[in-house]
Amino acid sequence: MIKLEKNQTGIASEFYVAGELSRLGYNVSVTFGNTKSIDLLVEKNGKTKAVQVKEFKPLNQSVGI
Questions:
Q1: Which of 23, 26, 40, 63 has the fewest beta carbons under 10 Å from its own?
Q2: CA–CA dist 49, 57 (Å, integer)
Q3: Beta partners for 42?
């Protein structure tokens, strides 16, 4: 089992949220850390919102590879 580093869980969380919002019909752009305090730009029906994703902590912190 490999323990994930904090930056890995943060990035995974951003992509998880982006995927779920996309599944719900939103247009999502990931900023890849290029914009302070904004992880995702989300658009739907002509309205755009900035989203900051906080870290997701799974019940099991280790991932088997």
A1: 23
A2: 24
A3: 28, 49
How far is the C-alpha of 39 from the C-alpha of 42, rounded, in Å?
10
Pairing of strands 2-3, 62-63: antiparallel
Q: Going by C-beta distance under 8 Å and a sequence separation of 6 or more, which residues neighbour residue 10?
A: 53, 55
Structure tokens at 59: 């019940």
What is the edge-to-edge ordering of all strands in the sheet holding 40-44?
27-30, 40-44, 47-51
- Provide the token pair at 2: 């490999």
The answer to whether the beta carbons of residues 3 and 10 sit under 8 Å apart is no
Please give the span between the terminal C-alpha atoms of the chain, in angstroms, as a whole number: 7
pLDDT digits (tens, 9 = 90+) for 12-31: 889 999 999 999 999 999 99
H or E segment to which residue 25 belongs: none
